[in-house]
From TrEMBL:
UniProt family annotation: Belongs to the UPF0122 family.
Job description of the protein: Might take part in the signal recognition particle (SRP) pathway. This is inferred from the conservation of its genetic proximity to ftsY/ffh. May be a regulatory protein.
Family matches, as Pfam families: UPF0122
Protein name listed in UniProt: UPF0122 protein SAMN02745249_00769
UniProt superkingdom: Bacteria
Gene source species: Atopostipes suicloacalis DSM 15692
Length: 116
């Protein structure tokens, strides 16, 4: 469960992180990307552990709310699944068409860069 939540928060942070304040970004990065404890983050910023916890909880709720309203992650995952299906179809039926395979690989790479 904790790993699943971490992956979800990292994905939401990847899509919506620029909409957060610098303090929210710092706390999220330290907690979810750097794997710092609440106490370590609190110590680094000279605030209480509870302040970090509260800020992270509010930020998580904000990220979930952004996704609920904007659906960027859901749409990205949907497009990724479609691209995967197209690639599998091409590999099965058009393996020899190098140009077609290059084009689909380019689209997939663009999609991956979009997430980051």
């Amino acid at each position: 469960m904790e790993l699943e939540k971490t992956l979800k928060m990292n994905q939401l942070f990847s899509f919506y992180g620029e909409l957060l304040t610098s303090k929210q970004k710092d706390y999220m990065s330290d907690y979810y990307e750097e794997d710092y404890t609440l106490a370590e983050i609190a110590d680094n910023y000279g605030v209480s552990r509870q302040a970090i916890y509260d800020s992270l909880k509010r930020t998580e709720d904000t990220l979930l709310d952004y996704e609920k309203k904007l659906h960027l992650v859901k749409e990205f995952e949907h497009r990724s699944e479609i691209l995967k299906n197209i690639k599998e179809y091409l590999e099965e039926n058009y393996k020899e068409d190098e140009q077609l395979n290059k084009l689909i690989n380019d689209v997939i790479q663009d999609s991956i860069r979009e997430e980051n």
